[in-house]
Design brief:
It catalyses: inosine(in) = inosine(out); guanine(out) = guanine(in); thymine(out) = thymine(in); uracil(in) = uracil(out). The protein is built from 16 helices and no strands. The chain is mainly α and 456 residues long.
Length: 456
């Protein structure tokens, strides 16, 4: 909720900018995992000249390099490492250098990926170069996301939701680009080149949006002179916590303390003291306040990355070969997941349930572990241990709907609840901590994907 004396976000330009920045942060990752058929063809040694890249269904083909698993793991380990290092970069490197420099580096590395479409090379070197590019891109993405989440921690929670919705839309954008490439009818090389140039345009748009923020009054109000706003924002946060009380009776001990605190602040007899600047927030103190929410975020991403895309990309249609069989996985795995994930993230714009005081959130998060065996028992032809219990396409589609919407909603919910559990001057630290735990969950899930794939 914005303060009463805050300027208006004219034409919602700041909201749109953060939405596009969210889109730009996850475009590279989504374009890599959605292009699994392209990489499988290149790694099979087919070469550019003979491979029908992005034109036919290669999802069920043999994955000799375990590309699905490695691209996930080598995306998330650098993300975890550089999220840890981001706390040091925060003190040593100016914010503009971190954000703008990361965007430019990601742009150049993804341009390299697009250029490799035109280069014939053997599978081994191509795999090595691609994995190195994935590592570097996600290292810069970690710095970028940590810095942007830190900025969002000082702004109304609506902007965090917009940013997360933009990240969710990145997957839809990549899946649609994949489908258009498959259905375009142009030659395979042109189709693949157009596919990989698309995220470069998206990152350029992100750069323009970031550079426009200092010229918008609403953004300057929240992003400049953060410390001078801390005391006023603290009173606002306390008022927000008390808004949900019924009949004037606080519903928790925390809110009783806030009520007393507000009463003391209103006493006219109190002597005017020198205004005290809030001290440097303690990471440990902030962690004590948000540890349960952070753990929920870790578990959500652990479940998601343990099966998506390593297991889900292997699921094929049980129908006879044809158009539906060709488009089944791009539509039912990637497009459906990203649409429902984006919808789930967007739902927090309308309500936040359960709230930060509820113990229902950990229960809902733990229930998502049921998706792991459900997907492993779907129609994956390449298996040697587990049976196929859910062969029909409808089972996989139903599981994916629930899996994706729960992922998007719970991720957005935890990211929105964390800043509400701390004092205003601690929100930036809370945002950085949540980014670290987000990366930790992604890394845990990526590591587990090797085990679950081996159990098939």
């Amino acid at each position: 909720m914005a303060r009463g004396d805050a300027p208006r976000d004219s034409y919602h330009l700041v909201g749109i900018s953060f939405f596009i920045l969210g889109l730009g942060t996850l475009l590279p990752w989504n374009f890599f995992i959605t292009a699994i058929p392209y990489f499988q063809v290149r790694l099979a040694g087919a070469g550019n000249s003979t491979a029908r890249i992005l034109s036919t269904n290669h999802t069920g083909s043999e994955d000799a390099f375990n590309f699905n698993n490695w691209v996930t793991l080598l995306s998330q380990l650098p993300l975890l490492l550089f999220t840890l290092l981001n706390s040091f970069l925060y003190q040593c490197v100016p914010e503009m250098v971190r954000i703008l420099g990361s965007l430019l580096a990601i742009l150049m590395l993804f341009a390299l990926t697009a250029a490799l479409v035109k280069v014939d090379m053997s599978p081994g070197p191509f795999f090595s170069i691609t994995m190195a590019s994935v590592c570097f891109i996600n290292s810069f993405s970690a710095v970028l996301q940590g810095s942007l989440f830190g900025q969002l921690g000082t702004m109304p929670s609506t902007y965090s939701t917009l940013f997360l919705s933009g990240q969710g839309l990145a997957g839809i954008f990549a899946a649609l680009a994949m489908l258009l490439s498959m259905a375009s009818g142009v030659d395979a090389e042109t189709s693949a080149l157009g596919y990989f140039i698309t995220p470069c345009v998206g990152i350029l748009m992100s750069i323009v949006c970031y550079l426009s923020l200092p010229h918008l009054k609403f953004a300057r109000y929240y992003l400049a002179n953060k410390s001078s706003q801390a005391q006023a924002q603290e009173l606002e946060t306390k008022a927000e916590l008390l808004q949900s009380d019924e009949n004037g009776i606080p519903s928790s001990p925390q809110k009783v303390a806030l009520t007393l605190d507000l009463d003391l602040e209103k006493e006219p007899e109190s002597e005017p003291d020198e205004p005290q600047k809030p001290g440097k927030p303690s990471v440990f103190t902030v962690f004590q306040k948000i540890w349960l929410t952070a753990l929920c975020l870790v578990l959500v991403f652990t479940v998601t990355l343990s099966v998506f895309p390593a297991i889900t990309a292997m699921v094929t249609s049980s129908t006879s070969p044809g158009k539906w069989s060709q488009f089944f996985n791009p539509i039912c795995c990637f497009l459906l997941f990203n649409i429902m994930d984006w919808l789930g993230r967007s739902l927090t714009s309308y309500f936040l349930w359960p709230d930060e005081d509820s113990r229902l959130l950990p229960l809902l998060v733990c229930l998502r572990f049921l998706f792991v065996p459900l997907f492993m028992l779907c129609h994956v032809p390449q298996r040697s241990r587990l049976p196929i219990l859910f062969p029909q396409d409808a089972y996989f589609i139903t599981f994916m709907l629930l899996f994706a919407v729960s992922n998007g909603y719970l991720v957005s919910l935890t990211m929105c609840l964390a800043p509400r559990q701390v004092l205003p001057h601690e929100r930036e630290v809370a945002g950085a901590l949540m980014t670290f735990f987000l990366a930790l969950g992604l890394s845990c899930g990526a590591s587990l994907s090797f085990l679950f794939k081996a159990l098939l």
